[in-house]
Each structure stands twice: as C-alpha cells, then as structure tokens.
Design goal:
- With 311 residues, the chain is mainly alpha-helical.
- It folds into two domains: 200 residues, Up-down Bundle (Alpha-lytic protease prodomain-like), CATH 1.20.1510.10; 97 residues, 2-Layer Sandwich (Alpha-Beta Plaits), CATH 3.30.70.
- Helices cover 66% and strands 10% of the residues.
- The protein is built from eight helices and three strands, in the order αααααααββαβ.
- It has a three-stranded mixed β-sheet with strand order 1-2-3, with helices on one face.
- α2 packs parallel to α6.
- The longest helix is centred in the first third of the chain and has 30 residues.
- It is elongated, with a radius of gyration of 26 Å.
- The chain starts with a helix and ends in a 23-residue tail after the last strand.
Length: 311
Amino acid sequence: MVREPRQLAMRVSLGASVFMLAGKLLAYFLTHSTAMFADAAESVVHGVATGFAAFSLWYAARPADTEHPYGHGRIVYFSTGFEGALVLAASVTVMRSGVLGLMHEPPLERIGLGLAIAGVLAAFNCVLGATLVRIGRRHNALVLVANGKHVLSDFWTTAAAIVGLLLVKLTGHTWLDPLAALLIGAWIMFTGISLIRTSIAGLMDQLDPELATKVEAGLSDAVRRGRIANYHEVRCRRLNDEIFIDAHLLVPGETQLDEAHHRATEVENTLQALFPDQRVHIVTHVEPLAHDAAHPKGHPHRLDEAPAGAR
C-alpha cells in the first residue's frame, strides 16, 4: 500500500509523456519552428526514459531474495543514469538543429496556434513535474524525483520555445527561433549532466550528509544517556525508502553480555525512531570500551592489519 502513490504517479507520468509528445509534434508541424522541433525531440527522449523509470520503480519494489539479499533498489541509480545519458544525447541533437536553423532560418507558419498549444503543454508539465518531485521526496523514491526533474526541465524547454516564437512574432526576426533552440539544448545538457552525477553518487555510495548527521545525533544521545560509553566505525547509506546503518558500540568491559545486548537493542530502537516512515536496517557490534584504541575512527582494520592477538 505504501508504494501505490509512487506507482500511480509513474503511470500518470508515462501517459503524460505520450500526450506531450503528440502535442509538441503537432505544434512543430503547424509552425515548422526549430525550437518546437527541439522541444519535441526532448520529449521523445523523455518518453523512453519514463518507460525505463516505470520498469525500475516496479523492479526496485521487489523483495530481497537469495540472489539479491539487499533487495533490488540499486536499479534506481541505473535508471537515473540512463535517463541522464538520454537527455545528454538529446541535447546534442537539439543544439545541432539550432545551429542548422541559424544557417538556413526556415520560414515559420501559424505561430499563434503553435504558441497556444505550447502554452497548454507547458502549464501541464509544470504541475506534473512539481507533483512528481513532491511525491518522490515524500516517499523517498529517487526514480520519481529524477523523472519529475526531467519533466520540469521539459517545462523550461517548452517555455524557451514559447519565448522564441513570441519574439519572432513581435519582431519578425526568424533567427530568434533557432537561437531559442540552442538555449533549449544547453538547458537539456545541464539537466542530463545533473542526473548522471546523481546516478554516480548513488552507485558509489557517496556520503549523505543529512543522513549521517541524524545517525550521529542518535548515537551521541545514547552516549549522553549512558546507554553506551562511545561508538565508532559508523557507516550509513540511503536507498529509496531504505536506510542501512552499521556501528560499533562501546560499553564498559565489565558489562554482562545480556546487559550489553539490551543496551545495543535500545540504541537500535533509538535509531529506528529517527526514520519513522522508512525501512531501517541496523547492524551493531558491541565491544568493550578498552578496545576503542584498536579501531581508529573511520579506518576499519583489514585482517592483515589487525593487531597481534586480535585475529
């Protein structure tokens, strides 16, 4: 049930991408505008990317199995990177059309009707993109956030095409239309690079500062309350609505095993409570306080570096 809003939002986005492509192609064939062609080309890419994003959202929701004990969530980063690569490729095509348009300046027709169609499409995309980003962030669905940002970039490309056509209509200078196409291409390129960077950061488990701060705060609170003496070897990462946390908890050496286990459970429950709307996977390792010196913070030992007697 938790995943239903995501699936519904993605289905709406997939259907909308077909509607947007049809509308932009109609505007292009009516006006023969280079900027409208650029906007339509971006929508072709968006449709393909949305289809892959919908598949990724479904696949990421599959439960963990013997071959994928950590689940299938990492596909969202592949989806984001794939979408970014397609957007980047589209930007090259769009900018090429802009350059050719500046060289030949094709005549424009029915500008007013093209502007009306583009205006409706732009308004629709603005609302849809903002909604997708909001739902994606609320439910920690990277695929939806990425798709929503792509839709918003689509809105800006349509807006640029509208401005270009409007300026042509007001001034009569047809070269402003392919210039708008060039600006659209540059914006699409920026969006593609941003999506690829997000994908790489996720695949490389780049530190999430906000997540790390919350986890550190929870552990520090456990120290202040005297449940543990200290902690180290903390690692955490976020994957959609799942959070993975590893930590070594230090307790006084004379603490009985059952008491140490009870304290570790309390700390785990404290960390769980920090993320009430997400699935949290916590692995803790209890150590005597005197063992702290054997583990410099942030530098886990390899077996070949372990101190004598520690193996």
